[in-house]
Amino acid sequence: MKKQIVLALALAAASFGATAGDLGYSYVQGGYARTHIDGLGNGDGFGLDGSVAVSKNVHIFGGYTMQSASEDGIDVDLNSTRLGVGFNTAINERADFVARAAYERADVDVDVPDFGSIDGNADGYSLEAGFRGQLSVDGDIEGWVLGGYAKLDSAEVEDISLDTEGGDDDQFYGRAGMLFKFNPTWGVVAEGRFAQDTNEVLVGVRASF
Asked: Which residues, other chains included, contact 195 with Cβ-Cβ below 8 Å and sequence gap of 6+?
């Protein structure tokens, strides 16, 4: 009888480890994206993100969003790109410390009636760090919260460079999200990035591998 109890406990522990286990950093996710900019209104569209673990503690990640907005006859298209590298390490059995650095770019096209189209772009980088962990016993719910800093390096409008010195356009931000897993592969994800003048939200589906 004692053997059966020991075996049952061992199987249960193995099963729990397979379900809750280590947090994975290889996935693809996509869904509805929405951005709110104070004084300019809202834009919405589609977002696609992904990450690949290249080692136990290092992952490469990237994202792309296509959004549009229209107000008072003015149409705005905003495409954003993000590509970076991250470091992750376990702080206990259920949580990781995460630090990431990324290159970021935004391309904007503004169509003004009776005037024409105005193109612009901005380049910079972001640094962020925080924690990611399992919020449920079975590991089906994950959450993360990070604090970050975004630096604007350069900006152009119709090939004319704008002054970005002084850091007026730099910003601190917070990032938070949750993942609800249906099974080890599929889940629903919601994530937001919140700054003083800009809020970004993505709600969609994630496939982990």
From this structure: 150, 171, 172, 173, 174
Give me the residue label for tokens 């993100």: 49
On whether residue 62 sits in a domain, the answer given is: yes
Dig out the tokens for 50 from the structure.
């992904």
The pair of structure tokens assigned to 157 is 């409008």
Torsion of CA 147, 89, 151, 48, to 10 degrees: -90
Beta-carbon contacts of residue 94 (< 8 Å; ≥ 6 apart): 20, 133, 134
pLDDT at residue 8, as a whole number: 38
Which DSSP helix (H) or strand (E) runs through 13?
A: helix 2-19
**Which CATH number covers residue 170?**
2.40.160.20
16 within a domain of the structure (yes/no): no
Full domain range(s) for residue 196: 22-208
User: pLDDT tens digit string along 155-207?
Assistant: 888 888 877 776 667 899 999 999 999 999 999 999 999 998 889 999 999 99
Is residue 157 classed as helix, strand or coil in its secondary structure? strand
The DSSP 8-state label assigned to residue 139 in this structure reads: S
Q: Which amino acid is at 60?
A: I
